[in-house]
Amino acid sequence: DLCHHCQKPQRCFLSTPPQSRPTTVLLSSPLLFFSCSRQLKKFSLCTITLSKNILHKLQLNKYSVFYPPTKITMSTPSFTSTKTQSHSTKPIQNQKMGTSGLRKRVSAISYTSTEMENLSQSEYYRKIASKYPHLNNYVRNFLGALILYLQEWMGSCALGLDGTEDEQIEEWRLLIGGDGRYLNREVIQLFVEMLYACFVDKLGDETKKPMRIFIAQNGTMSTPACSNFIRENACNLGGFILTASHNMAGPNGDWGIKYNNQHGSPATERITDRIYEFTQSIQTYTDMNGEFPQIDIGKIGITTYGENSDFIVEIVDPVSHWMQLMREVFDFVMISDFLQLHRKRFAFIFDCMHAVSGVYARKLFVDELGMTPEQLTLCNEQALEDFGGMHPDPNLVYAKNLVDKMFDSNSRYSMGAASDGDGDRNMILGNQFFVTPSDSLSIIVDYADKCIPLFKHGLKGVARSMPTSTSVDRVAQAKNIALYEVPTGWKYFGNLMDSGKLSICGEESFGTGSDHIREKDGLFAVLAWLSIIAYENRNTTPNDDIVGVKEIVQKHWKQYGRSFYCRYDYEEVDSTAAEKMMEHLRTLVEGRIAQAHPKYNFGSCEEFKYVDQNDGSEADKQGIIIRFTDGSRIVFRLSGTGSSGATIRCYIEKYVQYSIDAHNTVMNDKSQEVIKGLADIALELSRLAELTQREKPSVIT
Questions:
Q1: For residue 113, what pLDDT is reported?
Q2: Is 603 helix (H, G, I), strand (E, B) or coil?
Q3: Is residue 233 classed exposed, middle or buried when 0-12, 13-18 and 19+ CB atoms within 10 A define those classes?
Q4: Is 44 a catalytic residue?
Q5: What's phi and psi for 2, nearest 5 deg?
Q6: Residues with Cβ < 8 Å from 154, sequence gap 6 or more?
Q7: CA dist., res. 208 & res. 203, Å (int)
Q8: Cβ–Cβ contacts within 10 Å for residue 378, how many?
Q9: Where are any strands of DSSP class E within 288-373?
């Protein structure tokens, strides 16, 4: 590898353990070492002479940086007890996982101060107080139900019911990651103790194989990195991600957990429904009566438990596997060359929102892409358990500090971006310019085969969630790419990816991703935009003006027209009132809409229903769509990402085809003025204010 600054060879090392070593390169002047073991095959090492010709032929990234390996510590069994303790319990209501897992207020899963005072007299509580003093039975019940599901899954694997031959399974593997929010450390400790109790007490001979629990260092690994890690490391039990995504954290915030299957995809409804059945029938949960030792999740290493050292806890680096994947997906050389060429003209600002992206940002933008301190500004970089009191949702309201810097009349920044609590969402900004997530998806699809190596042979298909604007539909049609419309929820994209039908997908809720993993990926979108900007400026000189974010978007509008798009969020609405409003919308008939609003050419009204093309599962009541003949739409749906009450989302989309006469309209930077007529119709038809007693939305995006 060549140093960014002195252009001399530098010594580099592989950072991942041999059993999960990905395809990568190691440079140790004057020799080049490389391996090829993507499918966990037997590791082999070769050496060849380092030369520019070889680097070119192997298409190696001359700027890639490999971090020195962290010393992996092994230990003799630190705990061998098999004395478990069963605790009687009763089912607890409201433990059904939604679109993005289970999310609850911290207060709902914590002991009150009075309860803690009363419990302090208990011998059992005194044993566990140092490890997880705050967690009440809500968490224990839910973890117990998850373990019951895992037991059932392991049994089906042992019997070959899932299509897996039992002899192919050498050990059970499970990942635990998360966004580092408040109480995650306690939950990880409790979860591992309960898993160990299940391992020594509940597993029969047919399922008793070694069990390896991977835990992200400090419990912090982004959702996209978790998806990749599950896939790269053959986690046949999948993974649990402790996150409430973009919801606030801390003692007064939210806590959450979601399950991803062995493919790295969010659990399907069949899985979450089965877990819910266990939550409603659970009678006991089992632990080690507080005797299980404290786990140091801050130190990378391996600790074994059990008489045969067959229960293994491995603390892993949260960054290295995901970073290697990004080197394979994108052309880091092209991006780095652009940044170097325009280091005096291109400045970038990224808001980590005191969340999980802070673990990745500096390593990506500085160590990998070579951004200088003059080019790069990282805001709120330190990852905190309460996200610094911020609402880690990358939109125009909650990322106000970033927005103010980008829209300042004297802003020096060419591009700005932000990600959310668990690193799977993104917001893209240009200088005094906001890119809607729908436009961002469309533009990434339009440029993908030109500047992103993963897609150089074309796209298999593209997809959007139903509420997302139809902007990408026009790109797919022009490029003759298959298009899929799915309900909100990344699991629907995952099924299409697993069947080989989908390459790039996105949601209007600031989520963009591709089939490199089975989750949306905030930094993937940022890298895609850096690739597009680098591509558009490939023939420029240091003295030329940069073709920036705004110019790229406006060029796109000229070619495909523009969907003016806006979303109204009404958060924490009374659930009964929200359902009443949706029931009212279901009663609307086409004639009534057409008669009431003759100036809009009404097209159709329907409730969206989806049948999965792979497993035949059905998802109904996914939202009300009111269509107009000019391509405009109004959509209403209830969101499943809140922790209390209901969130009503109203989506307004007005399409304007580009022409010379329509130039000023298409380029109008005041979307609210363009869509106002449709927004008024939406509020009138839904009777939202009347039925919910909410006059204004919580957030307008």
A1: 77
A2: strand
A3: buried
A4: no
A5: -105, 135
A6: 172, 203, 207, 237
A7: 6
A8: 18
A9: 301-305, 311-316, 348-351
Q: Which of 20, 35, 110, 245 is catalytic?
A: 245
- pLDDT at res. 27: 37
Distance CA 191, CA 478 (A): 50
HSE on the CB side for 513, CA within 13 Å?
Answer: 30
pLDDT tens-digit readout, 304-343: 999 888 999 999 999 999 999 999 999 999 999 999 999 9
Secondary structure of residue 686 in the 3-state scheme: helix
Torsion of CA 7, 13, 16, 20, to 10 degrees: 100
Q: Which residue has the tokens 């229960």?
A: 311
Task: Give this prediction's pTM.
Answer: 0.85
- Per-residue confidence (pLDDT) for residue 597, from 0 to 100: 62
Render pLDDT for 75-106 as a digit per residue (tens, 0 to 9): 556 788 889 999 999 999 889 998 789 999 99
Binning the chain into helix, strand and coil, the percentages to the nearest 5 are: 35, 20, 45
Q: Which two tokens stand for residue 290?
A: 């507080």
- What is the C-alpha separation between 567 and 508, in angstroms, rounded? 9
Which residues touch 287 (CB under 8 Å, ≥6 apart)?
Answer: 84, 85, 87, 140, 190, 193, 194, 197
Checking if the pLDDT of 599 tops 50, the result is yes
Task: Note the residue count of the chain.
Answer: 701
